[in-house]
Amino acid sequence: MDNNPNINECIPYNCLSNPEVEVLGGERIETGYTPIDISLSLTQFLLSEFVPGAGFVLGLVDIIWGIFGPSQWDAFLVQIEQLINQRIEEFARNQAISRLEGLSNLYQIYAESFREWEADPTNPALREEMRIQFNDMNSALTTAIPLLAVQNYQVPLLSVYVQAANLHLSVLRDVSVFGQRWGFDAATINSRYNDLTRLIGNYTDYAVRWYNTGLERVWGPDSRDWVRYNQFRRELTLTVLDIVALFPNYDSRRYPIRTVSQLTREIYTNPVLENFDGSFRGSAQGIERSIRSPHLMDILNSITIYTDAHRGYYYWSGHQIMASPVGFSGPEFTFPLYGTMGNAAPQQRIVAQLGQGVYRTLSSTFYRRPFNIGINNQQLSVLDGTEFAYGTSSNLPSAVYRKSGTVDSLDEIPPQNNNVPPRQGFSHRLSHVSMFRSGSSSSVSIIRAPMFSWIHRSAEFNNIIASDSITQIPAVKGNFLFNGSVISGPGFTGGDLVRLNSSGNNIQNRGYIEVPIHFPSTSTRYRVRVRYASVTPIHLNVNWGNSSIFSNTVPATATSLDNLQSSDFGYFESANAFTSSLGNIVGVRNFSGTAGVIIDRFEFIPV
């Protein structure tokens, strides 16, 4: 703890006037049926239950395909229609909903047949029924999905397109895994597997293309435009991109066992200011610049908040962030000051690293209109209090800066599981706080808008390597990067990417990324696989601890490293398997003197 007497150390128990009072107004268990609720539940399911079988099939029925009627499908359409201000004409709308209804009815029959077959897998009649049901399901999906890509309506239909695409990939994986037991010949199974791998790429590239088209469409110069832009980005990340990022896991030959994935991308709640969506002209670019540029993932430890005052109105004027690298594998570091270091009240430190981190904010806004002309009558748009709630299985009290408010982050980023209290079922945790600011003490208008960044809860604090699953570790979860940079992801990787520069023929200057890893099992042997993109054959070296486990020239995968498509990525893999005794870091180094390479993730495959 800092010994500075001017700091109020805001751990939960000394930040509430009455720590025994639940400041969140009680935990409510609710069932969410909005497109975002459904999509978050599906993403949680895909992250945790991605194993072929009746459990997976029936899970898709329970989450979507067995409970949706026309009104639920229509809600998916309305969500994007409102964001882009485009109405789907009646014929296209009715056609899409009818097709989705038909797929839902057919999949419920498929699921019941699957359940019966799995209970009696050698029964000839049930095997034949599965062949019939698969062919019917595959044919219906092959026909329906192009009709969800109606000309001029690709963007408003995008989230239902992705739901249907996800269903199609799951069915194709089923036949790739179980087709022989159903009685299909090897040629048919191989053909359907080829369909699976081809459609993973096709569906991915289609979704990202039309996501980007919609995002460009809603951009504009003012704060109102930025709010809509950010809402589109946030909501379609949840309903489209997160699901698409998991499509590669359907490749049953590359991922034959349970696979653990992580989503490291960040999304942003809107700046918590009154009237923010209406009154700030020409501010969109400034707001967007206040968001962090691509970076290695870090762990938010604390926020030290400074308070200023204007004519007796106290407000959040600035703050400093302290964070740690992933795995707490290095010293804590401090970010530069956001905003201004007000001293109208003692600075207050919010400890973020309690429980499972901050999953919810409840903020209080303050807006003061100018009544007269003069230095003491500015327009004031500020935040005058925020409550920070912790994800936990117990009732850990919140931390509060000044006071709680009614602007609830859960309204924009709801839980992924509505069957338990939000403190357990939350989907995201607070990962960073930046600030959009405008004006000084002598300005006509003073704006201080904290910008809350959120990361999916699957992006764990530590890189834990499972002994019974393939574990995917994004390269941005590294803790050391040399002669390289973090670049924006293309939308289908679930996060940003690491680019390793060429050495310029200087062996001391080889691009390198290092990732901390932790092994609960010391006896399991693993092969290491890397997903990468390169425009030329390139010599790469992978080290595990101090040992080199791969050093070879890998093939070119792409014609350009700009505007990446799913087919621009390839894989290489260590030939031998190793145990955790090699060490607790893994890294990849670019040995090329002239070419750069992009690293998406490491994969640990137990053998």
UniProtKB/TrEMBL annotation:
Ranges where the Pesticidal crystal protein domain occurs: 50-251, 259-460, 470-607
Q: Which UniProt keywords apply?
A: Sporulation, Toxin, Virulence
What are the coiled-coil residue ranges? none
User: Which GO molecular function entries does the Swiss-Prot or TrEMBL record give?
Assistant: signaling receptor binding; toxin activity
Pfam families tied to this protein = Endotoxin_C, Endotoxin_M, Endotoxin_N
> InterPro entries annotated for this entry?
Galactose-bd-like_sf, Pest_crys, Pest_crys_dom-III, Pest_crys_dom_I, Pest_crys_N_sf, Pest_cryst_cen_dom_sf, Pest_cryst_dom_II
Q: What is this protein called?
A: Crystaline entomocidal protoxin
What organism is recorded for this protein? Bacillus thuringiensis
Give the organism's phylogenetic lineage.
Answer: Bacteria, Bacillati, Bacillota, Bacilli, Bacillales
The protein's gene is named cryIA(c)
